[in-house]
Each structure stands twice: as structure tokens, then as C-alpha cells.
Specification:
The chain is α/β, with parallel strands linked by helices. The protein has helices at residues 17-22, 36-43, 59-64, 83-88, 101-116, 119-127, 156-166, 182-188, 195-201, 221-226, 244-252, 292-311; strands at 5-8, 24-27, 48-51, 70-73, 93-94, 148-152, 171-175, 190-192, 204-207, 232-235, 258-261, 281-283. The protein has a 7-stranded parallel β-sheet with strand order 8-7-6-9-10-11-12, sandwiched between helices. Strands 2-1-3-4-5 form a 5-stranded parallel β-sheet. The longest helix has 20 residues, at 292-311. Bound molecules: glyoxylic acid.
């Protein structure tokens, strides 16, 4: 029997030995993702696809598959994949939940603290030779300890943010599709509030909701108007949750004080985006889960899903439960 054919859309931070024992593996070795037309050509003949969030796996692509048994994404989010189209063809889609929760929550805190205490600006200031002496009012920012934190989306990552916030003695509000049980709320010291109230009462607002048609541009002009002029917004979820033009207006007109984004719409951010002219914005290149250990585990988990799918076994971490 010939081995199944697998296409991996980028080099992975793990070794492929286990996979190579059961499949013929082709890896796209460029730094940029494979163009759509390359994916379209590959998908016609492969049995398994291991992809990343930068690959658009839409219904046209899925329709072109003839022997595809599994789509395995190395990410927890999967808004780049047309799940109903995969489900309609009986193709299971795997992802990597849980394993990146702590790394993502840690990085969110790095951004929150860097934005509040102006770490990036202070570094630029120092390198520019502007550190003249100790000054009582130099580069002031708000308190973090004791502040009010608003968490939008209260899944695994939102809850991990709350666990860290407890150590900073914060008042923690959350908004979510549904209220969690009182025991969990009590253990984490969090309060469920309507979204608008969270916006108007929080000193820091952090986004942890998936991108869907319900959350697309959830943050636009009206939401920024509700926020405090001293508020700081952090996004390590998906860029599309924020309307970038409205964010520019809010940051440049002082409707909110600052933002720190690990994700943008589009990605990468265009170099002529007006957002990049602002000092009160920190921008990082979608690296929230990028601890060495986490990325290796994500790659291994994606391989585990892929191998299960090739064997026709249930995927250990399946999005569409096939
Ligand atoms: C990263 O953004 C992920 O979804 O894993």
C-alpha cells in the first residue's frame, strides 16, 4: 500500500520522524505561506493537510480535494478554515487548544504592563539620548495593582488572565456569551457584567474572544466612546475584532489612552497604517503563544491530530467532532 501523502504549509518547530514513518511528507519551506494556487494544486492529491492560521482554507479549496482525510491546524483559532464546508465533506478539522493558554496569557500580561508603564516608549526615549536625569514626572503611567480589568471572552485564555490578575489585587469584570457558574466566579474573584458596563468601568480591557460574524469589529466607534479616556486596550485574540480605523480615531483623539496589539486586520499590518505613527500604541507580530516549549507542543499536537485523521481514527482535538 502506498503511504498517505501529507502537505505541511511551513517548517515546524519539532521533528517529523513519527509522521514520516506513516506518511510521505512535503514541507513548504519558504518563510511566506504557500500562495493560494499552490494550496489548490496540493489539495487535489493529498490525504492530510497540516496548516497554519495564515492559510485560507475556504470552500473552493475543500471542494477541490479528492482524497483529503484530515485538516490539522497548528493554532487554537480556526477562523481561516471554512468549518461547515469541511464538515459537509466529512473531513475532520483539528486544532491545538489548551496547550497555548498560559503562554498567551503571560504575553497578554507583558503587553498590558508594557502599555501601562510605557516600556517600549521608554526604551525609544533612552536610546534617543533623552534620559537627562531622574525626573518626578517622567513617563508616568497608571497603576496596575488595584485597577479594574475587563476581560472580553471568558474561555480558557480569559480565565488564565483572571488568575494572574488576582495577584495584582484587581477588580475583575468579564463579559461573555454566557455567565459561568458561581463557584468558578468565586474562585477567580470575577464579576459577570454587560459588555457596555465592562467598557465604561474598566481601566484595562483585554480581548479573548474568537473571531466570528458576531465578534467582527466588536470594538468600533461606539465602544471606544464608552471607554474611559484613561483606558488601555489589549488584543491578543484576532485582529478582526477591532475596527482599525475606529481605533486610530480613538487613540489619536484621546478617547482612550493606549493600546497594545499582537493581532491586526490585515496581518501583517500595512507599513503605511496610521496606527504605526502613534506613540500610545504597541504592536507585536502575532507572537502571544511563541514560547519555545509551547510552539513545539503545538506542532506535536497538530501532528497527533494529523496522524489520527490519516488512520481514520477520531482526532484527539477536533473542531467539528467527526
Ligand atoms: C494563535 O493565534 C492561535 O490561534 O493559536
Amino acid at each position: 500500500m502506498p503511504q498517505p501523502q501529507v502537505f505541511i504549509t511551513r517548517r515546524l518547530p519539532t521533528d517529523l520522524d513519527v509522521l514520516q514513518q506513516v506518511a510521505t511528507v512535503e514541507v513548504w519551506i519558504e518563510r511566506q505561506p504557500p500562495p493560494y494556487k499552490v494550496l489548490l494544486e496540493k489539495i487535489r492529491t493529498i490525504d492530510g493537510l497540516l496548516c497554519l492560521l495564515t492559510d485560507r482554507i475556504d470552500s473552493q479549496l475543500i471542494a477541490a480535494a479528492t482524497s483529503l482525510k484530515v485538516i490539522s491546524q497548528m493554532a487554537v483559532g480556526y477562523d481561516n478554515i471554512d468549518i461547515p464546508a469541511a464538515t459537509a465533506r466529512g473531513i475532520p478539522v483539528g486544532h491545538t487548544p489548551g496547550i497555548l493558554t498560559d503562554a498567551t496569557a503571560d504575553f497578554t500580561w507583558a503587553l498590558l504592563m508594557a502599555a501601562a508603564r510605557r516600556v517600549v516608549e521608554a526604551d525609544r526615549f533612552t536610546r534617543a539620548g533623552r534620559w537627562l536625569t531622574w525626573e518626578p514626572d517622567l513617563l508616568l503611567g497608571p497603576n496596575i495593582t488595584g485597577a479594574t480589568l475587563g476581560i472580553v471572552g471568558f474561555g480558557r485564555i480569559g480565565q488564565a488572565i483572571a488568575r494572574r490578575a488576582k495577584g495584582f489585587e484587581m477588580r475583575i469584570l468579564y463579559a461573555s456569551k454566557h455567565q459561568w457558574d458561581l463557584e468558578l466566579e468565586k474562585a477567580l474573584g470575577v464579576e459577570f457584567v454587560p459588555f457596555d458596563r465592562l467598557l465604561s468601568e474598566s481601566d484595562f480591557v483585554t480581548i479573548h474572544t474568537p473571531l466570528s460574524k458576531d465578534t467582527y469589529h466588536l470594538f468600533s466607534d461606539r465602544q471606544f466612546e464608552l471607554m474611559k479616556p484613561s483606558a488601555i486596550l489589549i488584543n491578543t485574540a484576532r485582529g478582526g475584532v477591532i475596527d482599525p480605523d475606529a481605533l486610530y480615531r480613538a487613540l489619536s483623539q484621546g478617547q482612550i489612552a493606549g493600546a497594545a496589539l499582537d493581532v491586526t486586520e490585515p496581518e501583517p499590518i500595512l507599513m503605511d497604517s496610521p496606527l504605526l505613527t502613534l506613540d500610545n500604541l504597541i504592536m507585536t507580530p502575532h507572537i502571544a503563544s511563541a514560547s519555545r516549549q509551547t510552539r513545539e507542543k503545538m506542532a506535536n499536537m497538530a501532528i497527533e491530530n494529523l496522524i489520527a485523521g490519516l488512520r481514520g481514527a477520531p482526532l484527539p482535538y477536533c473542531v467539528n467532532n467527526i
